[in-house]
Specification:
The chain has seven helices and three strands. It is mainly α and 200 residues long. It has one domain.
């Protein structure tokens, strides 16, 4: 084994010096990963659904793209604000609980510092959610922008959205170290229904 290599074990990781290193805590990613997955899926599904709805009554590509862009801007702002307020409420509750536990048990400042390190970040969740929403919304926008034929455009938007759902589900599973197949299938099935009606 090369000097810089590490080796996985059941209990964690063996470092360069042969001692057991702390295993990576994937739960630390849960807060921003949840916001990012939710934002990406919401941006993709809501924007694609909006564009498909407009496309079902108006065959003009410009109207379809403009509606999608408006949905992107409004949705990203809404997701950021909603995520910030939601996570800040969770933050306040956890801080209050920490203070009650410290008064009850007389915990040390080191324990309190460690607990605060595990608190959710409202700003991080808001930024992750807004950026992810914008990324998700860009998929149907780019898919529709360069297609002239009305029916082909609808089909391409639906196909691009379904493919992106599978990608988002897989990426989220890999980052969270969860089963890829189950996550991918759940995201595709859960997010794929809104644009079946316009195509049907």
């Amino acid at each position: 084994m090369a000097p810089n290599d590490t080796k996985l074990t059941i209990g964690g990781v063996i470092g360069q010096d042969g001692t057991a290193a702390e295993p990576f805590d994937y739960a630390k990613r849960a807060q921003w990963l949840r916001a990012a997955v939710l934002g990406a899926n919401d941006g993709l599904v809501s924007t694609a659904s909006l564009m498909m709805g407009v496309g079902a009554v108006k065959s003009d590509a410009k109207a379809m793209v403009l509606s999608g862009f408006a949905g992107l801007v409004a949705g990203a702002c809404s997701m950021a604000i909603g995520e910030f307020v939601s996570v800040y409420s969770q933050y306040d509750i956890e801080v209050a609980q920490m203070k009650r536990e410290k008064l009850a048990t007389g915990g040390s400042s080191d324990e309190e510092r460690e607990s605060r390190d595990r608190l959710p970040s409202p700003l991080q969740a808001a930024v992750a959610s807004a950026l992810a929403f914008a990324v998700g919304a860009m998929v149907p926008l780019l898919a529709a922008a360069f297609i002239g034929s009305y029916r082909v455009r609808l089909g391409v938007v639906a196909a691009a959205a379904t493919t992106a759902l599978a990608v988002f589900g897989s990426v989220g599973a890999v980052l969270g170290h969860a089963p890829v197949g189950r996550s991918c299938g759940r995201v595709v099935v859960g997010g794929g229904w809104p644009w079946r009606s316009p195509l049907g």
